[in-house]
Design brief:
alpha/beta; 3-stranded parallel β-sheet; 11 helices; globular
Amino acid sequence: MKHMKKMLCLALGLTMSLTLLSACSGGGTASPSPSASAPSPSASAPAPTGAVLPTIEAGKLIMSTNAAFPPYEMVTDAGGFEGIDVEIATKIAEKLGLELEILDIDFTPAVNAPAEGKSDMCMAGLTVNDERKVNLDFSTTYATGIQVVIVPEGSEITTIEDLDGKLIGTQAGTTGYNYCSASPEDGGYGEDAVIAYDNGAIAVQALLAGKVDCVVIDNMPAQEYVKANTGLKILDTEFAVEDYAIAVKKGNTELLTAIDGALDELIADGIVQSVVDKYITAD
Ligand code: ARG
């Protein structure tokens, strides 16, 4: 616990302005971080037309994701895909003259897909962290995620201090799972305290069914799940603040440079912000 609080304070200190920003707008803003609008060293114009980018299938940009993560990626009633990531990826593909194809699989395989040659990029509200940097290279950051805690209304859990001894639901393979399942010395609650579900929606169903005491998940999906189900609320205390970015296979610099060029333009033109704004739901 002590470590986690330290980590939390550090994270909050570093990103105070962002946290305040999201607090002011109801906690749901995943705004591009300040660094996102600054020119990144690897940024350059998208590949010149005619240049063949090193994608798995010529002319295509295959994006692996787990589309149970609203408002970043979700399946429409008609069986298509929508969400912040889907719209940004569509615009990146357009700029690069590629056709976007979405590979919707479980989260862990979606993260591993670029390194395994199964996708060109993973875009999944994906948090940048050192563990993932072993096999992946990350783009410019385009959003901020905050790990929050969902509890049933009337729960005896009122702050993260109360999580000790409780059963925590998470999505398998996510940073939320990693924080919570870490040993108490490392600021977590230990593996036995955490259940990993295939995705956030299933974790929330388990919470509603009383199988876990809370769910730790990213703030924007948390708000969507709470809105879609009665009897749930989000704790005011935040768990950790993170950056979202697109990941490609480590060493695929040509593709990453092209993606970054397109993404940086979309950020500079305010398009990323307008896509994010479109999906921020008024309470
Ligand atoms: N931000 C968290 C992570 O990177 C959770 C992302 C889950 N994304 C998804 N599309 N299901 O670990």
